[in-house]
Amino acid sequence: MTSWQNNRVARDARIAAGAALARGKVVEARDATRLLEAVLRSGDRVCLEGDNQKQADLLSRALLAVDRSKVNDLHMVQSGVVLPEHLDLFDRGVAKKLDYAYSGPQSARIARMLFGGKIELGAVHTYLELFARYFIDLTPHVALIAAASADREGNLYTGPNTEDTPTVVEATAFKDGVVIAQVNEIVDQVPRVDIPADRVHFIVKSDKPFFVEPLFTRDPAAITEGQILTAMLAIKGVYAPYGVQRLNHGIGFSTAAIELLLPTYGERLGLKGRIATHFALNPHPALIPAIESGWVRQIHSFGSEVGMDDYIRARSDVYFTGPDGSLRSNRAFCQTAGLYACDMFIGSTLQIDLQGNSSTVTASRIAGFGGAPNMGADARGRRHPSEPWLKAGAEADPDGSALMRRGRKLVVQIGETFGDKNVPLFVEKLDAIELAEKLKLDLAPVMIYGDDVTHIVTEEGVANLLLCRTALEREQAIRGVAGYTDVGRRRDHAMVARLRECGVICRPEDLGINPLDADRSLLAARSIRDLVRWSGGLYAPPSKFRNW
Amino acid sequence: MIATKDIAPAERARSTSFNEASARTRLELLLDAGSLVEFIGPEQREISPHLKIFDLPEQFDDGIVIGHGRLDGAPVFVAAQEGRFMGGAFGEVHGAKLTGLLRAAREIGTIPVLILFDTGGVRLQEANAGELAIAEIMRAVMEARNAGVKIIGLIGGRSGCYGGGGLIAGCCSALAVSEPGRIAVSGPEVIETNRGVEEFDSRDRALVWRTMGGKHRRLLGAADVFADDTVQDFREAALELIGSIGAFDLDRLKAEQVRLADRLRRFGACEDAIDIWTAEGIAHAEAVPELPADQFIALANRIGRASRDAR
Fold first, then answer.
1. How many domains, chain B?
2. Which of A324, A521, B39, B258 is close enough to A192 for a disulfide, judged by CB 3.0 to 4.6 Å?
């Protein structure tokens, strides 16, 4: 007779094997490796929770220590490859295949290991893609997750960094998988239930809190006058004319400058309430002055940020918080919000080519995609109208029927023509293409495709690509704001002048901006100390950002 | 929109961060409006003879502005290091300009000197010339003081006051410092490199500031006045110090020796600045770094160990 519940039987057997090491659901940290040896089977798909911020570091080390004769050739399906242990697994042969989304701190090593054949690569995804595949063809057999606390039944409190956890648990627990959580503490009652106990099979108490990195803190003291100028151009040249209220910001210094100019420069332009009111955004400390000045109505977050907990708790009108008062973030929902409910994405990149394709890949690094491609892409499934979306759509297709025309999301790339260490932002050919050729990838790792990009903002001006009608116009519009880079110097001056006349390119003076006014005194906060002051002492920056 | 240049000078001085301003802006706003007259200005292009050997960019004033001007109507000599050029480091020309200014002050004998430090120490690329310059400057400071000149250091720049700059600061008649200002000889990275991260974690910026930062230096008496981080506050601090510095003689040097020996005896065993503050009887010493300027100044005036007899 055909059995239709083989997976459930197998899952129960795994849990039974693990239960021998547990008291109830609780397993001692020293037994974590034995637990994994009991529960895992060679070749399993395993999600080792590596988020942007919250890392299952104890379980990573425990997995690295398993007996290879018992557990090997795992297929890791995780959003972030962040800790060194995540890659040590492949060096040791515990894991063989990898599907992931983001590898910021490990980007150089992952490139070497891919090239050396140490890792069999499935694909590099965006967050939403990988989450989607958890429910179709990459469902984990075992999920190793991290939470702040658990009660003895296994109810989990993730803390403000809920991030990927609900998505990973949903896919694993409801498809006959096993969920193992490391927690910082075991308590009688969790502050709130982020993950209900019946989805959690084992709890391991970690000897020290999981590792959290402040990834979204930009010190205002490091913002340059060039970045302030590009921020002024963006506010006056893009935010204002489209009336962008719902948006997502990247995490670079240019967008931090925009956040710090809203209560000063934006206020003087009379834009309060008309732009930048609703965000899909991590709790950026740089946004505190705009929040305190009453600019921002609502923010939904992918994850949290170190030091922002008390501030968020006290500003629940702005942030999403649980009944316990602390932030509830959720990467899958926030990515969806950024894709469908935001009218603009604005962010920095490392390279832009002549078609407007951009990439953060350089010759020796594969940082992965994370969320930017979902934020920075037109949502073809979008159906609700909004003013910026309709206006952008009309600019792209002025002759189309208004009732049948698609709107367009504003996808804005912002940066100085020469970036960090004077590396040019504009290139004839992306390094990503060379890398794809070298590694024989099916696709070059392009962060944002040129056909999604609507505006490029540099210190030389704003290029509105929606108004370009031909590939040649587009190329010259890009060259026309590329400054003294090789790409910029090879512009056709006559054509660039024509593009300026018809408003495709706007120079600072065309927008009534004097570059000499781009002064640091315009920033609402010029130091981390100022941000603390703005927050009324509620923001507690990590020590590495202090100068007092 | 109002451009910054249209705002009245005093208002600008109040709204301009000393920490962020350039050397020239600091002097422009510190002195009476329009009174600065520069010596050996950038138009004379007295540049470093060493940097081009290393293919490094030069600056026409070699990173220091010297000159004279007026403070509340009274004449002063001024020197301001540009911390954004090579971290304000001392090179041959840079040092010679300051030495010359101090010798001029010595010859005249009655005009105070304000030194706006913003330096990481000596330029590695011209180390011998730079070290010699430090020695010359220290001598020139002491000779000028001996001739009756008041020499005041103002410290609040981004590069702090390190290396030879810290030594020169120690020779001045008095110092004013702000919260972001730092005063020391060996920098955090140098200490970590030589003594290990257990001794000093240079990336723990809270540790760096409570060890070398303005508040600690004020509480220890190493700085005489604590200024909020605006150019106007430093102007007022300079005026206060000019009005309060006493005569320089052997008794004063002896008093300084006693003050330093006493400090070492009382706090030599302390592991951390917080221990020192606690030993000074400050309740909630760990909260000192968070205190706003006005509250801190009140605290420092109550217990700060500056002695008007010493230095």
1. 1
2. A324
